[in-house]
Amino acid sequence: MIDKFVRSVAEAMAGIEDSSTVLVSGFAQIGEPRALVDGLIEQGARDLIVVHNTAGRGREGVARLIGEGRVRKIICSFARSRGSVLFEEIYARGDIELEIVPQGTLAERIRAGGAGIPAFFTPTGGGTLLARGKETRVIDGRECVLEQAIRGDVALVEAWRADRWGNLVYRDAGRNFNPVVAAAGDLTIVQTQNVAELGELTPEVIVTPGIYVDRVVHVPSGDPPVVIS
Amino acid sequence: MPNWKPWTREELAVRVARDIPEGWSVNLGIGISTLIGNYIPPGREVILHSENGIVGMGPAPSPEKLNPWLVNASRQHVTLVTGASYMNHADSFGMVRGGHLDLCVLGGFQVAENGDLANWSRSENDRAPAIGGAMDLAVGAKRIWVVMEHTTKGGEKRILKRCTYPLTAKNCVKRVYTDLAVIDVTEGGFVVIDKIPGISLDQLEELGDAGLRSETGVAGRDGLR
Known about the structure:
heterodimer, A: 229 residues, alpha/beta, Glutaconate Coenzyme A-transferase, three-stranded antiparallel beta sheet, 6 helices, 11 strands, 27% strand, globular, B: 225 residues, ten-stranded mixed beta sheet, 5 helices, disordered C terminus
């Protein structure tokens, strides 16, 4: 019987090695696997390359992982955003490497990683600073940039419901990077708000087939924080 | 003192919203652009896209209808309209990059007469900039309109022959809405198609660093007034 559920976050994070590339899903704190990021902080792996849309907010989650000096390099589309204080402190000291990637290119590089496409040409970034040092080619009259796929040794995902095969569905805007991140990890770890019996998630509604998923842990963490702007 | 009154942010948003035809799929960037969604005329079906995987976004919710799981790309809580759908981030940007959006309205630092856009970084030496989805949108949408103040608060010019800030994308801007004028970007340079009362074309030109032609009342490149 296939059963990908583990009993604790600690068990879910077991075995992650130093120098791993870790993909972390989430957008605006929604669909962000916070318990798993906290679990990674506890677990202790160092010298990580982290791929996430931002360099973290405030002093929690990815920002805290960076703050504890565990991240060698961050690959993101927003390094500086409201409340990215910890990253800015550490970046100013030269203690972290930064790769800025257009958000669509970031999502597509992760998708390509999961789909076995080693690299692709895109007009996004053509003729800009972000094309520097990259191979370019004019295709159909447009300057295109060669972008490399991103694959994770580890992928961290938050689902709304999961069954024991690791089939996943997401809630509202909590889907965001999760399906592509789930597909691009050699070890894909999921925290799920709810547990479903096998068969309860019907074939039409499953967004991520369990084949992509290695471990699932039940973390009923509740609603994401309400944004007050 | 000039004897004209610039459009306010709200007036600008209303002006842009008025020009979006029924049936268009549209991505609205941050800043003034986000306001545009509030001013689409009632009954006109315009489909709003958000980079974080939403097609069919509605206005901000009333407090009792707020869904903590539903924000737009500017991290504001939003609602869905009937017919809306969700996608993952790669599909959402695939929709952008694949040319499926009729329009994206972006903020700008500078726009050049060749359609170049600079809206993400004020210096090559900015060590930790934020690009977000601007480059994907600028390259991918069928047309780019830029909404920005005509000059900076300090009076620096933003309507230029060539951008001096790092580019977001080359030759992508079709139209600029400023607080003083609506300007099409054409093969032959900037063409003013509307301006606020009391300002002359010469006065407008002096507030930029590029030649302007006037075709007030003439349909622009998009066939729109």
